[in-house]
Amino acid sequence: MTRIGSRRGAEYARILATGARRPDRIVTNDEICEVLDSSDQWIRERTGIITRRFAAPGETVVDLAAPAAQQAIERAGLAPADVDAVLVATSTHMVSMPSAAALTAARIGAGQATTFDLSTACAGFTHGVAVANDLIRGGSARHVLLVGVDRMTDVIDPRDRGSAMIFGDGAGAAVIGPSDTPGIGPTIWGGDADQWEALYQTASWTEYRDAVQAGGEPDWPVLTMMGPKIFRWAVWQMADVARKALEAAEVDVADLAAFVPHQANIRIIDQMAKQLKVPEHVVVARDVVDAGNTTAGSIPLALDRVVTEGQVPSGGLALLIGFGAGLSYSAQVVALP
Amino acid sequence: MAHTQDEILAGLAELVAEETGIPAGDVQLEKSFTDDLDIDSLSMMTIVVNAQDKFDVEIPDEAVGGLKTVQDAVSYISNAETAKA
């Protein structure tokens, strides 16, 4: 019988470069409180967020993704034609087809690439790192462009004290490519899908349409979440996931240069760092303070900041962990570009 | 071994002080966590998780909303310890 041929890719993969696109408009807590019944102090105490960025009207996730992607490709010393696969992690691409990845690829001149989106909310980027690593090592791609992007302002209720002050818009990107040394550790990932109701969209787009067609004035579907429940899951269960990612990579927490968790809320970040006993010399990403929670954008934006502000050495190790709606999570140790 | 109500109160007061800086002496049975002690929902969750470890009992998410006063929490932990014994 004829045996199917197979191929292998690079021995290892690593992040070659990062890029970012932060929307121009900075939104203060006072501006949020023009609609939300809250205060600057209340928001700072509960979330650590001082400002966030909002995309301009009509500025889509593709508009945000493209400049972040171009920056990452340039920094990697590559051309768009060198990219074999474009993966976009997002939950706020407002058309079903084509994918945000296809539109981003077309926009940046990487139309030849394989394109697909990943819909795992705040775990999207770290899921994407796992997929990119496997694509490269499995021989399915040589250079993968991974973008995490969300325009959360489309799906939040500005009057909801449980969410309105937390979220922002933005895109972060990474180019992942072949490496002679291990640059991406084993991914620890999984879910707790029985708890999906802890964070979900209040209605589907078709339910909204049907209600409008029936003559009603339905509320726009928005994200709703059970904050304290998510907080408990995110801190204590995700700390266990983070420990497993360190163990799988055979890296001690003291050997990290940076800890870059999903930028959900400063209270989650600080409590998780405490649970993990992250030492003082490890840079803990706190991009949330002026970026808000940008869902799939949060980890690559925070990572880009840690790298570009020179807080960590190239080749230093960072622990990434994404977690959120699904519930879903993923974590891995990576070498910094 | 099950703790007395006074021991649970003292242990809980320590956890509240550690999380919020509120003096342990201010954590009294009749006090409301939110209205009197001004403890927010995330700090409350932290106190609950630490209380689970300290007293070796389960306090599920669903139960946390029902813990309005310090007495509610002390009773919950005491009952959970009794049920386990």
Automatic annotation (TrEMBL), chain A:
Active site: C122, H262, N293
A single GO molecular function term of this UniProt record: 3-oxoacyl-[acyl-carrier-protein] synthase activity
Domain Beta-ketoacyl-[acyl-carrier-protein] synthase III C-terminal: 246-334
InterPro entries the UniProt entry points to: ACP_syn_III_C, ACP_syn_III_N, FabH, Thiolase-like
Top EC group: transferase
Annotated EC: 2.3.1.180
Catalytic reaction list: malonyl-[ACP] + acetyl-CoA + H(+) = 3-oxobutanoyl-[ACP] + CO2 + CoA
SUPFAM superfamilies with a match to the protein in the record: Thiolase-like
GO cellular component, one term: cytoplasm
Gene3D superfamilies tied to this protein: 3.40.47.10
Superkingdom: Bacteria
Primary localization class, coarse: cytoplasm
Pfam families with a match to the protein in the record: ACP_syn_III, ACP_syn_III_C
Keyword set includes Transferase: yes
Keywords: Acyltransferase, Cytoplasm, Fatty acid biosynthesis, Fatty acid metabolism, Lipid biosynthesis, Lipid metabolism, Multifunctional enzyme, Transferase
Compartments it resides in: Cytoplasm
Record NCBIfam families: fabH, PRK09352.1
Record-stated family: Belongs to the thiolase-like superfamily. FabH family.
Domain notes: The last Arg residue of the ACP-binding site is essential for the weak association between ACP/AcpP and FabH.
Its biological purpose: Catalyzes the condensation reaction of fatty acid synthesis by the addition to an acyl acceptor of two carbons from malonyl-ACP. Catalyzes the first condensation reaction which initiates fatty acid synthesis and may therefore play a role in governing the total rate of fatty acid production. Possesses both acetoacetyl-ACP synthase and acetyl transacylase activities. Its substrate specificity determines the biosynthesis of branched-chain and/or straight-chain of fatty acids.
Identification of the protein by name: Beta-ketoacyl-[acyl-carrier-protein] synthase III
Gene source species: Kineosporia babensis
Taxonomic classification: Bacteria, Bacillati, Actinomycetota, Actinomycetes, Kineosporiales
From TrEMBL, chain B:
Taxonomic source organism: Kineosporia babensis
Pfam families linked: PP-binding
Modification sites for O-(pantetheine 4'-phosphoryl)serine: S41
Post-translational modification: 4'-phosphopantetheine is transferred from CoA to a specific serine of apo-ACP by AcpS. This modification is essential for activity because fatty acids are bound in thioester linkage to the sulfhydryl of the prosthetic group.
Membership in a protein family: Belongs to the acyl carrier protein (ACP) family.
InterPro entries for the chain: ACP, ACP-like_sf, PP-bd_ACP
Gene Ontology biological process terms, A to Z: lipid A biosynthetic process
One MF term in the entry's GO annotations: acyl carrier activity
GO CC, one annotated term: membrane
Protein name per UniProt: Acyl carrier protein
Domain Carrier: 3-81
Physiological role: Carrier of the growing fatty acid chain in fatty acid biosynthesis.
Principal place of residence: cytoplasm
PANTHER family: ACYL CARRIER PROTEIN, CARRIER DOMAIN-CONTAINING PROTEIN
Keywords, sorted A to Z: Cytoplasm, Fatty acid biosynthesis, Fatty acid metabolism, Lipid biosynthesis, Lipid metabolism, Phosphopantetheine, Phosphoprotein
Compartment(s) of residence: Cytoplasm
Gene label: acpP
Gene3D superfamilies, per database record: ACP-like
Pathway assignment: Lipid metabolism; fatty acid biosynthesis
